[in-house]
Amino acid sequence: MTQTPAPVLFVDDEAPLRHAAGQALMLANLDTILCDSASAALAHVTPDFAGVLVTDIRMPGMDGLALMTEVLTIDAELPVILVTGHGDVDLAVASMKGGAYDFLEKPYAPARLVEAVGRALEKRRLTLENRRLRAGGIAAQDPVTDRLLGRSEAIVRLRAQVRAVADTDADVLIEGETGTGKEVTARALHAASARADRPFIAVNCAALPAEMIESELFGHEAGAFAGATRARYGRFEHARGGTLFLDEIDSLPLALQGKLLHVVEHRSVTRLGSNDPILLDLRIVAASKRDLSAAARDGGFRPDLLYRLNVVTLRLPPLSERREDIPELFLSLLALAAARAGRPVPNVPGAVLSALAARDWPGNVRELRNAAERLALGLDSALWTGDAEPGGTLADKMSAHEKALLAASLAAHGGNLKATYEALGLSRKALYEKMQRHALSRENFRED
């Protein structure tokens, strides 16, 4: 379903300026509502208004500051961008303390208007999404989208691959760095399949004691070994009709890999102490943080087992390749963490979300989840508050705000400097100087 574009309310009593701004916004594919007065704009504002407000300060009757006050009374988190003449810059800066999101000084470049509005719309989208998460009101979409969140090209492609293979019985190999969500992906695959109402059995092969791996996987009969006082199902049998997820499969000893190959090929298992094979109807999903093709070449993994398992291979992107997904992921993880702790979901300012998208997460989604857990529990609150509301002088605050905006734009454009300085309305030299001043490196934002 295509979402209705969020509207931009643009208010200016001067028709030429109003229509010029409207044209710039519409050329940028932004849905725009042009108003010649504050009262006309107010008629469009409701608590669930999905757009943003851009208003001139100097207008007859209700001026822009009064309009901002009325709008923030309706919704204190609705982004308001003030348009000001040169003589009103100090007033506009002071108004930011009173709730304004940003201000533009006349004359401004159309690209500057579009960039400011784009950031404000993204903040509004995240604010409304955060509210829905806190209210627990997100409608279920589908088992894949619900589990694999994000809008990046990499995650959209992964969801398409999961959906394509879900209704087949093909075995799947999932590869990805630590913390990228291999088990979550396996569960999404299971939930979207015809086996969804059957068992999903997860086994961490690296966590099984060496002397018990075979018994755990294949089961045993009574008397099969010392201490086996009664027959026991193995994990394969527990997963009959459903999905067996073998995480860190590369940690299995080579001898056991040979027995696993037999199960994969013949879809039957023989318990320890028995000669009778038990037929299996299940899908096997294996996962590894290592490159199994390289491991097979090096002799650490059986090539024939690899060929049986990688009928379909899903490669999970690290967060460094999907930075634009970090704000949405963090808000979702924060809502879940708060629900588990029985606490309200903390509000996360836009500056914090921008900073999260800009930093490195070597532990990927798992590390991001830990950060959300700490915030939900009220830990590291000084750190988060400090990131969102830098102390010191106005110059310090403006500098921190500028750094957050630069980092967010670099993340959104994958470190592409040309796209970044064009989106920000800067010259190449100005962007380089600002990046150097704020110690920002394009290498931390590159997608390749």
UniProtKB/TrEMBL annotation:
Residue numbers carrying 4-aspartylphosphate: D56
Any one Gene Ontology molecular-function term assigned to this protein's record: ATP binding
Keywords for this protein: Activator, ATP-binding, Nucleotide-binding, Phosphoprotein, Transcription, Transcription regulation, Two-component regulatory system
* Keyword Nucleotide-binding appears in the UniProt entry: yes
Q: Name one Pfam family in it.
A: Response_reg
Domain Response regulatory positions: 7-121
Q: How does it assemble?
A: Interacts with sigma-54.
Mind telling me what this protein is named?
Nif-specific regulatory protein
Per the UniProt record, the source organism is Roseicyclus mahoneyensis
